[in-house]
Amino acid sequence: MSTNHYDAPSGDVANDDYKSRTGQSKIPVQSDNAAVEATEYDNGGESDKQLEKDENEAIDRSNILNERTRGATKKAGTYTEPGDEEEVDNLTAGGNDGTSSGRQ
């Protein structure tokens, strides 16, 4: 069994062969040597602080309700369940007694 040992290249590795030229591609590709742009998340790694900031900006406090629902309930006494006889009458109305029409 032979073992191959390959030496890794030393120094800075940069290959700009893939870099887009002006007008060549619709999706631009940056050079390896391009500077990294600063973002709004440059906060020293405090992701919890950034998350809290993002959540506070995203939450519309004017849309929060203090109640559980928006009051979408019927007034007391306006809803009554049908009795057993009413249900049976509704089920058998029009000849629909629950049996299959193919079997007679």
How would you describe what is shown here?
- By secondary structure, the protein is mostly helical.
- Helix content is 20%, strand content 0%.
- The protein has 2 helices and no strands.
- The chain has helices spanning 47-58, 84-92.
- The mean pLDDT is 69.
The helix tally amounts to: 2
Q: Give me the Rg, rounded.
A: 36 Å
% residues in beta strands = under 5%
Structural class: mainly alpha
| Secondary-structure element string | HH
- Report how far the terminal alpha carbons are from each other: 81 Å
Please outline what is shown here:
By secondary structure, the chain is mainly alpha-helical.
Outline the fold blueprint.
Blueprint (H helix, E strand, L loop, with lengths): L46 H12 L25 H9 L12
Features:
104 residues; mainly alpha; 2 helices; elongated
